[in-house]
Amino acid sequence: MRGLALLLMSAAIGVCLAACGASTPTSHTGAVTTASPSRSHASAVMTADNTPADPVKPAAARPRFVRVVRTAYGVALVDRRGFALYQFTHDTRAASTCYGACASAWPPYLAPRSLARGSASGGLVGTTRRTDGRLQMTYAGRPLYHYVGDRRPGQILCQGVTEFGGGWYVVAPSGHIIR
After folding, report:
1. Can you give the residue ranges of every domain in the chain?
2. pLDDT band at 165 (very low <50, low <70, confident <90, very high)
3. Which of 80, 85, 87, 86 is nearest to 48 (CA)?
């Protein structure tokens, strides 16, 4: 029975990879935005060159969980390593609905262990508890994910697709999805 479950999960990931091929534009990380849409989250949102998004409020002592970069889809959020962050339209506010095969294709952006003892700071950056007890990063109250097919920083291979009952989109600094 376990072998069948692994086979089905592998098939689901293969379908996702095939559905989101390289025909989608990849992002461009050379240009960076330095404007902050809101002062309230400037401590957590950073530009790609690791400078605070709001030069008035330095964030040197605060963790940088989310950064802002210019992509082929506009200015969007990436994780600390530069990998695109996605939102799933099927999720309810602050609760993930992506588990099993969905989470294999769209891994949740998990909070670092150091954050698990406290809470995220920075206004729009937060966490939600998954059913297995792990903390998943949120932005503007919505869970964040990676795409398993994005293999390098700045790559966005599965923007605007419908899978697992909802749409997958990169996220603007405002917290809204980019269509």
Report:
1. 2-170
2. very high
3. 80
Q: Which residues of 8-26 are buried (b: 16+ CB within 10 A; e: fewer)?
A: eeeebeeebeeebeeebeb
Q: Are strands 74-78 and 66-71 parallel, antiparallel or unpaired?
A: antiparallel
SS3 (DSSP) at 64: coil
Angle at 32 between CA 30 and CA 34, to 5 degrees: 165
Give the phi and the psi of residue 16 in degrees, each rounded to 5.
-65, -45
3-class DSSP state for residue 136?
Answer: strand
Distance in angstroms (rounded) separating the CA atoms of residues 10 and 16: 10
Q: Which residue has the higher pLDDT, 61 or 111?
A: 111
Q: To which H or E segment does residue 8 belong?
A: helix 2-19
Q: Using an 8 Å Cβ cutoff, are 33 and 42 in contact?
A: no
